[in-house]
Amino acid sequence: MDPGRQAMIKGWKSPRKDRDRDITAPRYDSSNRITKTSRQPPAKDNVATAAAAADRYLTQDQQAEQFIADEDKFVLKQAKKKADIRVRERRAQPIDYLAFGLRFIDSDRDAFDNDDEDVEIDIPAPEAVLQSLNEAQLRELEEDIQSYHTLEHNSRNREYWTALLALCADRRQKLKPKGPEGRAVTSVASDVDRILSPKTLEQLEALEKQIKAKLQSNEPIDTDYWEELLKSLLVYKAKASLRKVCAAIKEARVEMLKARDPEKAEALAASDGFSSVVPGLAPAPTKAVARAVAATSQPSTSAPPPGTARFASAGNEDFSQATKALYDREVARGVGEGEEIFSAEEAVPGIQKPLWADKYRPRKPRYFNRVLMGYEWNKYNQTHYDHDNPPPKVVQGYRFNIFYPDLIDKTKAPTFKIIREHGRRKGESFAPAGKEDTCLIRFIAGPPYEDIAFRIVDREWDYSAKKERGFKSSFDKGILQLHFQFKKIYYRK
């Protein structure tokens, strides 16, 4: 029995552990006692650290917003870079001149995209560019300006594009035939110009507040006159805002020229900073302007473009806002070197009315596809051609981008399958010498989207992802992307 317990039973005092303990009993060691620590409130520093860590983890919606923002930045950067190249090579479109002028004060521009010779290029004044265009060209330019305005986040750059949108719309309105009311307004236009043109941007903003207050008051006023004056004031306000940005551009160019050529810098400082003459505009390149493709899926009362008649009558295309946003973002990427727009849509074989057609209105998905073209330098081509006289380009792959933002069941990704007609199997060829077999690639999704098919060259795919344009098959943010190129065939002796 334990000596302490035995002593307690007999009425003795408990033996002292340091003197009367049983030498055969275990040694007491206070450092081996297990105790439960009391819970202490977290320190303020720990709370701040935890909050900072939580901020680093984004929700799914925040991740989606971040993805779209990064995508917009990339598209905007590429658009600016292409505009610079076209201006330097003297094949610029109106939107390129407007974007090129802004580059001298654009704080978001990559310094590696700068060229020392750019400062010496004569830039036409933005208003001169607008004055040189007809109504159809202005409509096209307005769409280009709207694309820049949507993608831009820099406040001064957005101010620039906002002013140009207002002036472009005003110029289009002036080119339209005027009715009796328009002629009446024109008769007092000189008075309006005399009142508003000398005013600064700040004075116009103050006058705008006064006119709006007068229109909202209960005073007996000529409402038509004051509304028309307010409409004119907004145009002059856009002009003043544009002058402010152009003055900053001129100042930046003068500073850059002082180190290179002081005489040119003085001449530029003495002028208004821009050329009044707009260089001859180059014809719009089919590859760079993707609106030509949009015509194949937009309803039109005129004759369809060549080769697209079989699509023009379709009336069930997807024109939702979500689809339009995805489509416009992909169009803004443009078409790279060695790529061409691909729209060889075919009828889906054996298509039947889907089972869900009574519940959901079927719609055809929109798409923006590219075909990869290039030269094949096999033994035959090396013998008969050279780089000055290259062989015909051949199809080297495809990049499909099909938009399904409104899928009912978003957990089931769209799929695709290859269809070979006439019982032909993979690896078999029915094509004559010098020709290539083709097949259909069919994209299948759930409601409310119909199946869609394209005719492609039937060759073996290269599934390597290491190459620049390697294989990619994904469905994310409502976009089905299928990118692949064909395996290269090497001939041996």
What does this structure look like?
The chain is of the alpha+beta class and 493 residues long. It has two domains: 67-270, no CATH class; 319-486, no CATH class. 42% of the residues lie in helices and 11% in strands. It has helices at 3-9, 44-56, 60-88, 94-102, 126-131, 135-151, 155-175, 180-187, 189-196, 201-216, 223-260, 262-270, 291-294, 309-312, 321-332, 379-384, and strands at residues 339-342, 345-346, 369-374, 394-403, 415-419, 438-444, 452-457, 461-462, 472-476, 479-486. Strands 1, 3, 4, 8, 9 and 10 form a six-stranded antiparallel β-sheet that branches. Strands 2-7-6-5 form a four-stranded antiparallel β-sheet, with no helix packed on it. Helix 7 (155-175) crosses helix 11 and helix 10 runs antiparallel to helix 11 (223-260). The longest helix has 38 residues, at 223-260. The protein is extended. The termini are far apart. Mean pLDDT is 77; it is low at 282-315.
